[in-house]
Amino acid sequence: MALWLALAINAGMFAVEGVAGLLSGSASLQADSLDFLGDAANYGISLGVVALALVWRARAALLKGATMLVFGGWVAVITLVGVWRGETPEAQVMGVIGLAALIANVVTAVMLFGFRKGDANMRSVWICSRNDAIGNLAVMLAALGVFGTGSRWPDLLVAAVMAGLALQGGWQVARHARAELKTVKAAPAPAPFKVESRHKPVA
Fold this sequence. Notes:
The chain is an all-alpha fold. It is 80% helix and 0% strand.
């Protein structure tokens, strides 16, 4: 149930924050909206494999780690485009939407707190929600920076930090998943089940 609620929250915030990021010209809001989209997809993957064997859950976690790395790279591209375009975002929109996103992610993080010590698949769920809450705090700080300085650089700096968080989180998830896959492959195969015959051999 918690994963379904987390998926719905993240999908909804992706739409809200994505539109706000485009309208306000904020790279950090656009980065955070992509993070919401990636998390919604990751929660969907987790729901799909939660009842499967460990090897499949580890493979799903490896896939999620790869998507987080791709997301981090894409956010880095958005940040570089923002540097080139030189557009100053609207600080008020950043602050309001950043606060709404923070509330959504804190609720999600509380719901998923119990997954922080599970297998790689479940641990990745916690890492995503933790990184999101950190990212939202950074967006609000960026809004204050843009409002106080009238410059786009606080927004771009936060977008760069979020790219780094995604890359670090993706590497961490992928590393845990690879370790679990190695453990599964190294485990001895179960002994074959033998059926004893009830008939005695003829002398």
